[in-house]
Design a protein that fits this description.
The structure holds two protein chains of two kinds.
Chain A: E1 4-7, E2 10-14, E3 19-25, E4 32-38, E5 44-51, E6 56-59, E7 62-67, E8 72-77, E9 86-95, E10 98-101, E11 105-110
Parallel strand pairs in A: 2-11
Antiparallel strand pairs in A: 1-3, 3-8, 4-5, 4-9, 6-7, 7-8, 9-10, 9-11
Chain B: E1 4-7, E2 10-13, E3 19-25, E4 31-38, E5 42-51, E6 54-57, E7 65-66, E8 76-78, E9 87-94, E10 104-106, E11 110-114
Parallel strand pairs in B: 2-11
Antiparallel strand pairs in B: 1-3, 3-8, 4-5, 4-9, 5-6, 7-8, 9-10, 9-11
Classes of the chains: A mainly beta, B mainly beta.
Chain lengths: ~110, ~120
C-alpha cells in the first residue's frame, strides 16, 4: 500500500528566505506526483505536477523535483512571502485517479 | 471558467437522514473522485470513477455510495449518515486522456456535520 510522508509537519520562516519542503513515498510505481496548496478551510489549488518521466517542474518562484527511484520529491520556494503561508500537500497517483496524499507541511512566513 | 462545483458547501444533519452531495465539472474529464479530510488523517479517497458507469472503491468507502450516470456529475450519497462521517469532503476531477498523467482539479469542499 502506498504511503506518503511529508517533512517537516510545520515550518516557520522569516520573509525572503528560501525553503525546501520534502515528500517521500514508498512505492515508486507512480504515474505522477502533484503539489498542492491549501489555505485554511479552503479547497486545494494545484501548484505543480511532475510526470513520472520528468525530473522537475518550475512555476515562478516554485520548483519541484522528483526522484522516482528513491521515492522522494522536494518543493523549493524561493524568496518566500507572507502570502505563501498555507499548508502544502503532495500526492502521488498510482493509477487512473487513485491519489495518495501526505499529511502536509504547514508553512508560516513571517513579515 | 473551468471548475469543479460542489453543493452544498455546508451541511448540518442528524444521524440516519439520507443526504446527497453533488459534484459537477465542466472540463469533460473522465476521472472523478471523492475525498474526505480529517485532522491527523489527511485526505483519504472514498470512491473514484474512471468514466460513465465505471466506479470503484477508494481507501474509505464504508457508509458511502456514488453513481456516475453522466460524465460531468458524480454525486456522493450517504444513505444513513453517522457522526463519524462528520468531515470536510472534496470532489476532484482529472484527465481528458486515459493514462494517468493528468492534473487534479478540486472543488471548494463541503463541510458536513452529523449530529
Amino acid at each position: 500500500k502506498q504511503e506518503v510522508t511529508q517533512i517537516p509537519a510545520a515550518l516557520s520562516v522569516p520573509e525572503g528566505e528560501n525553503l525546501v519542503l520534502n515528500c517521500s513515498f514508498t512505492d515508486s510505481a507512480i504515474y505522477n506526483l502533484q503539489w498542492f496548496r491549501q489555505d485554511p478551510g479552503k479547497g486545494l489549488t494545484s501548484l505543480l505536477l511532475i510526470q513520472s518521466s520528468q525530473r522537475e517542474q518550475t512555476s515562478g518562484r516554485l520548483n519541484a523535483s522528483l526522484d522516482k527511484s528513491s521515492g522522494r520529491s522536494t518543493l523549493y520556494i524561493a524568496a518566500s512571502q507572507p502570502g505563501d503561508s498555507a499548508t502544502y500537500l503532495c500526492a502521488v497517483e498510482t493509477s487512473g485517479s487513485r491519489l495518495t496524499f501526505g499529511e502536509g507541511t504547514q508553512l508560516t512566513v513571517n513579515p | 471558467e473551468a471548475q469543479v462545483t460542489q453543493n452544498p458547501r455546508y451541511l448540518i444533519t442528524v444521524t440516519g437522514k439520507k443526504l446527497t452531495v453533488t459534484c459537477s465539472q465542466n472540463m469533460n474529464h473522465e476521472y472523478m473522485s471523492w475525498y474526505r479530510q480529517d485532522p491527523g488523517l489527511g485526505l483519504r479517497q472514498i470512491y473514484y470513477s474512471m468514466n460513465v458507469e465505471v466506479t470503484d472503491k477508494g481507501d474509505v468507502p464504508e457508509g458511502y455510495k456514488v453513481s456516475r450516470k453522466e460524465k460531468r456529475n458524480f454525486p456522493l450519497i450517504l444513505e444513513s449518515p453517522s457522526p463519524n462521517q462528520t468531515s470536510l469532503y472534496f470532489c476532484a476531477s482529472s484527465g481528458t486522456v486515459v493514462g494517468g498523467d493528468n492534473e487534479q482539479f478540486f472543488g471548494p469542499g463541503t463541510r458536513l456535520t452529523v449530529l
